[in-house]
Write a structure and sequence with these properties.
Layout: H1 2-18, H2 22-47, E1 51-59, E2 65-73, H3 78-87, H4 89-100, E3 109-114, H5 117-129
Length: 130
Amino acid sequence: MPRQLLANILQKSHYICSMESLRQQKVNKLLAKELAEIFRSESRSLFGGGFITVTTVRISPDLSSAKVYLSIMSNKDKKVVFKSIQDQTNIIRKKLGLIVGKQLRIVPELMFYIDDSLDYAMKIEELLKK
């Protein structure tokens, strides 16, 4: 019985510590959806083409800043496209504000990161085939 009780306590404490609030989850989904649409529609004009996917958005508890993880598939160098995205952060944030301005009190500051998990998985798969 004490062992089961300890397991329940550890499981619940892990659940509470790692869980985002419901509001954060909703804002994460909203930002991911709207940023994906911005990247889809503005990809050619702002970033010189390429396929940019929003893989994950993590917003801070106070909803003031968001980490946006991107997967970039382009015929150009990924670093050049990513640098272009970082240079255009203010324009992207303004476009996002026009879309979600009625739903959020403050449009969060955007910080972009490259999500290379797909490349990593492909590399591991390639190594396992050998």
